[in-house]
Each structure stands twice: as structure tokens, then as C-alpha cells.
């Protein structure tokens, strides 16, 4: 057996099972009724829209995630993103480290991510959507000073900046469309969430998981939930994403469906909906032969957003299940936690739960 750095080794209860089970029945939702140029669009066919909303609502409730097809994102943009991502990660470490992230430049390359206090077998590249992104300067609740996040664009491949920027626009558009469907499915006006994203802190990550000599005791990404409103995730043809389904707590592998996107309900949607919808735990398993690339877009609101269950969704019978929290301060604390290595657990949404 090849020696593995102990920082990567998962405790026995978090290791992958020897027999991977493929998920069946994951909802696959056809978004063609809401495409700009659809023949079947909502004005022409309200029943089709109602059916779409019903499917989204039930996928959010029963699963906390689903896949979408006919989503309107041009396949060329996705392919170009995957191509430049592979080119970037294929470089020598010394080149990649030129754009390595640190406490000040939180965007860029990184190879030492930690999830739940164990190192992930992966390297990442992070890009913020708005340049610059406004963010609190510190975690101190009384400190009103604002700082800025900028991207660190690599020299190679030179076309990466334009390709990722274009792709990010498609991700934003798709994620807002899905938030609109989620809003309607909760009985709210479709644009109910939109103002939260005016000065958004959304970002894109490229995840590269190299083959691993011992995938039985190591994970590409440890179990976690995504903290934002929702995640729009693309994966290449190599499988690895597992989700922990709600009905029986079993880990199931999400087989790649060509050109589909995986949508994860995030913790924010859970809080806004006062637990009507729940975020889902997921992780990434590895294999000994093939590298894998995935690239999530994390839809995050403006830093000054006070996150709390929506007033329309709470009442005497259904009181708020979360204390309000400031999104920017939370985000800064999380980013800081990323540098605090293996001895402390990172802040998470559960800290605001009213018990
Ligand atoms: O690689 C994947 O499929 C999932 C990655 C992920 O969960 C994340 O980056 O938050
Ligand atoms: Fe995730």
C-alpha cells in the first residue's frame, strides 16, 4: 500500500463504503418551458409552468437537489470552461502557485483545502463573480469597514479570464431562474429573492481531483453542505459526487448525465424557507486511475444581507427556526476558517439554529 500523508486520512466512520451505490430516480427537470425562445413558454402554456414549479418544489423538499436539462447554457461555453480548467491544472506546481490564494487574496489557486478537519485530495481555483466583490473587512460585528475581493487571473491559459467570465454570466442567469421557480414553489412572488443578489458575493470554483492510490480512506472533498442560496454544479464524465439522501441517510453516487447541471439547495434557501427545503450533504469519492474535474457556481447574496426565515413563511404555528445573521460576516469567518487547518471546526449555518 502506498503511504498517504496522515492529514488526508478520513476517520473510519467517514470513509467511503466498499460498494458504491448509484443513485436512481434523482429528479431530472426539463427547464425548456422557461427558456427565452421556448415554443412552450409560460405565457403560451401556464399549465406547463405550474407543473414545472410543482416538480421543483417536490425535488427541493424530498431530495434537496436535482438535475436540470434544457437549461439554456450553451454547451460550447461549458466545454471551453472545462478545457481551460484542465489546461490550468495540467501546469507545473510552481506556475500554479504564482496565483495561489492567501489571507488577503482569497481567490486563486489552492491545494490544501480542509473539510471537517481532514485534508481534501484536490486542488482548486476560485474566481469571484463581481470584480471587485464587496465584503466586510473583518469578522468584528461592529466593524463597518468594507474590503474588496479581486480575481487573480493566471498567465496560462491566456484565454481563461474571458472564458470563465462568460461562463459565469450563464451560471448567474440560470441560478436566478431556478431561484424564481423556488420562490413560486414556496408560494412567493417569483422575484422575491432577486434583490438579495444585487451586490452578490457569488463565485465559481474549479475542482481538480487527481487519481488517488488509496481511495478507500481518502476523500476528494469531505462531507459538507453548501452554504449559499444554491449551487449549480457541472461535472466531467468521471463520476465521484455522492449525496446523502434524506429518506434513509445512504450515500449514493450521482452518475454524470452529459450536459446536465446538478442543483444543490444551499443552507440559505433552507433558512429563508424556514426548513421547508433542506440543503443536502454531499462529498466526493476518488479512484485510482482517472482525474476528475467539477466546477460549481455558488450563488451568494450581498454581504450586507441579514439572513433569516422569510416573514411570509413564518407564523405562530411555524415560528422562525433560525436567528438572523449577517451574511458577509459569516462568509469572512468561513474564509478565515479555511486557513485554520486541522484543529478547529469551521463556522456553519447550524450555529444559528434556534433549538
Ligand atoms: O466535485 C463535486 O462534484 C462537488 C464539489 C463540491 O461539493 C463543492 O465544491 O462544494
Ligand atoms: Fe459542495
Global outline: globular
Alpha plus pi helix count: 6
> What is the percentage of strand-forming residues?
15-25%
Question: What small molecules are bound in this structure?
Answer: 2-oxoglutaric acid, fe (ii) ion
SSE arrangement, N to C? EHEHHEEEEEEHEEEEEEHEEEEH
Computed Rg:
20 Å
| Global structural class | alpha+beta
Q: Kindly report the average pLDDT value.
A: 94
**Secondary structure: helix percent:** 10-25%
pLDDT < 50 stretches: none
Task: Please give the alpha-carbon distance between the first and last residues.
Answer: 46 Å
CATH architecture: Sandwich
Please characterize this protein's 3D structure.
By secondary structure, the protein is an alpha+beta fold. The protein is built from six helices and 18 strands. The chain has a single domain, classed as B-lactam Antibiotic, Isopenicillin N Synthase, Chain (Jelly Rolls, Sandwich). 22% of the residues lie in helices and 21% in strands. The protein has an eight-stranded mixed sheet. Helix 2 (75-89) packs across helix 4. The N and C termini lie far apart (46 Å). The model has no long low-confidence stretch (mean pLDDT 94). Bound molecules: 2-oxoglutaric acid and fe (ii) ion. Residues 205, 207, 221, 226, 233, 235, 241, 282, 284, 294, 296 line the site of 2-oxoglutaric acid.
In short:
The protein is an alpha+beta fold. The protein has helices at residues 46-62, 75-89, 93-96, 160-185, 267-272, 327-337; strands at 28-30, 65-69, 108-110, 114-115, 118-119, 123-128, 133-136, 146-149, 203-209, 221-224, 230-235, 241-244, 251-253, 261-265, 282-284, 292-299, 306-307, 325-326. It has a single domain (12-352), classed as Jelly Rolls.
Amino acid at each position: 500500500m502506498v503511504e498517504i500523508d496522515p492529514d488526508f486520512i478520513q476517520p473510519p466512520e467517514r470513509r467511503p463504503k466498499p460498494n458504491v451505490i448509484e443513485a436512481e430516480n434523482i429528479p431530472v427537470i426539463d427547464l425548456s418551458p422557461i427558456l427565452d425562445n421556448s415554443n412552450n413558454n409560460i405565457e403560451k402554456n401556464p399549465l406547463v409552468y405550474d407543473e414545472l414549479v410543482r416538480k421543483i418544489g417536490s425535488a427541493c423538499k424530498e431530495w434537496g437537489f436535482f438535475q436540470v436539462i434544457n437549461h439554456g447554457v450553451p454547451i460550447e461555453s461549458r466545454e471551453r470552461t472545462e478545457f481551460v480548467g484542465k489546461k490550468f491544472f495540467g501546469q507545473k506546481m510552481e506556475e500554479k502557485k504564482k496565483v495561489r490564494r492567501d489571507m488577503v487574496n482569497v481567490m486563486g489557486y489552492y491545494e490544501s483545502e480542509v473539510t471537517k478537519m481532514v485534508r481534501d485530495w484536490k486542488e482548486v481555483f476560485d474566481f469571484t463573480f463581481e470584480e471587485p466583490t464587496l465584503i466586510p473587512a473583518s469578522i468584528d460585528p461592529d466593524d463597518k469597514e468594507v474590503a474588496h475581493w479581486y480575481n487573480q487571473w493566471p498567465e496560462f491559459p491566456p484565454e481563461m479570464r474571458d472564458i470563465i467570465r462568460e461562463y459565469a454570466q450563464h451560471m448567474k442567469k440560470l441560478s436566478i431562474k431556478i431561484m424564481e421557480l423556488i420562490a413560486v414553489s414556496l408560494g412567493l412572488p417569483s422575484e422575491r429573492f432577486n434583490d438579495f443578489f444585487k451586490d452578490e458575493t457569488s463565485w465559481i470554483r474549479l475542482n481538480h481531483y487527481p487519481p488517488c492510490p488509496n481511495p478507500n480512506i481518502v476523500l476528494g472533498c469531505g462531507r459538507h453542505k453548501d452554504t449559499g442560496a444554491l449551487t449549480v454544479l457541472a461535472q466531467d464524465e468521471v463520476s465521484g459526487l455522492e449525496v446523502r439522501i434524506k429518506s434513509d441517510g445512504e450515500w449514493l453516487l450521482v452518475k454524470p448525465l452529459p450536459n446536465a447541471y446538478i442543483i444543490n439547495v444551499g443552507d440559505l434557501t433552507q433558512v429563508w424557507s424556514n426548513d421547508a427545503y433542506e440543503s443536502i450533504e454531499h462529498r466526493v469519492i476518488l479512484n485510482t486511475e482517472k482525474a476528475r474535474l467539477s466546477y460549481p457556481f455558488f450563488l451568494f447574496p450581498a454581504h450586507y444581507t441579514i439572513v433569516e426565515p422569510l416573514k411570509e413563511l413564518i407564523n405562530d404555528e411555524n415560528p422562525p427556526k433560525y436567528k438572523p445573521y449577517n451574511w458577509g460576516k459569516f462568509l469572512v469567518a468561513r474564509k478565515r476558517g479555511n486557513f485554520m487547518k486541522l484543529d478547529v471546526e469551521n463556522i456553519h449555518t447550524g450555529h444559528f439554529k434556534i433549538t
